[in-house]
Amino acid sequence: MNKSWLSVLIPVYNVRPFLAECLASVLQDGIEGVEVLMLEDCSTDGSDRLAAELAARHAPQVQLLRHAQNGGLSAARNTLLDAAQGDYVWFLDSDDLLLPGSVRDLQACLERFQAPDLVLCDFRTVRERFQLKHRLRGELHFHTFAGPPRTRLSDRAALLRGAFDRGHLHSWSKIARRELWEGLRFPVGRYFEDMATTPALLLRARSYVYMDSVWVGYRQRAGSILASNTVRKVDDMMAALAPVPALLAAQLPSLGAETDFAAGYYAAKTFVTACRFEGRRGDPARLAQHLQSFEAMSPLAPAAVVAGCRARGWWWRALRVGYWLGRATAASKAS
């Protein structure tokens, strides 16, 4: 492999309590040829000073970039992508961790499977207090792909289907050849940037391997972006999937019914999340807006998604989607 076979890209913003542990988790395997780029996005909690200290301590392997003004997660990731030199890129949020052996296992995967374009991995949650209920929920191992593991594959329809089935579109569980990101960047100023980019990234992969191993520790904390929803976050979530139907139709005209349904049901789950938020806010008028977004972001008509749930014996899911579909339709007629 080349001198820099992997770039680990870490945006940094107000994560001082977690940053040193995050970086240590990347460096712990001591693998050569791994560059680590941190982007300091104008933190206000001292993360900037700590990032500078860590970069100086681990130079030249660790490099620190800076934004002149805060640009948000998407802008930070885009700057990191522009600076990356590795054959592969792996995003890691600065409050998360790589599990021991993850980089070594990735290196072995690339060698064993003749350097596929994309590697997908699993993750677990990291909590200050990990209780029995969290273990029972399966938080020690979340699977990100529904498909055969540890096999080099090339069926992109199956790749999309497997990713949508599991519903984990985050970038940090997808290690991709850097060339797959050429011309593809995160939408600046918007939340749920992973949902907006991952489908396009998957469609670019000519080969992929799913490693059913936990490589990432995803930290649950109150201050994270996904800890609570707001109107803006919900709107960004609904907008993120809007390009998906046209993207799928343009690049893979014959995805197949199962892949269309997987994407449609993922859109339906997103729709239900948005509607439940509006239900708690007591703003039924916005349900009509979300119905329009659902129709735009699903390869299947909403009624067809409900019918597909019933055909699979998913009665509770069909009821849940159908309930909010009915309320949103009524709100649309009343507006």
From TrEMBL:
PANTHER family: GLYCOSYLTRANSFERASE, UDP-GLCNAC:BETAGAL BETA-1,3-N-ACETYLGLUCOSAMINYLTRANSFERASE-LIKE PROTEIN 1
EC numbers for this chain: 2.4.-.-
EC top class, as a word: transferase
Keyword vocabulary terms for this entry: Glycosyltransferase, Transferase
Annotated protein name in UniProt: Glycosyltransferase family 2 protein
Coiled coil: none
Lineage top rank: taxon: Bacteria
A matching Pfam family: Glycos_transf_2
Domain Glycosyltransferase 2-like as annotated: residue spans: 7-138
GO molecular function, one term: glycosyltransferase activity
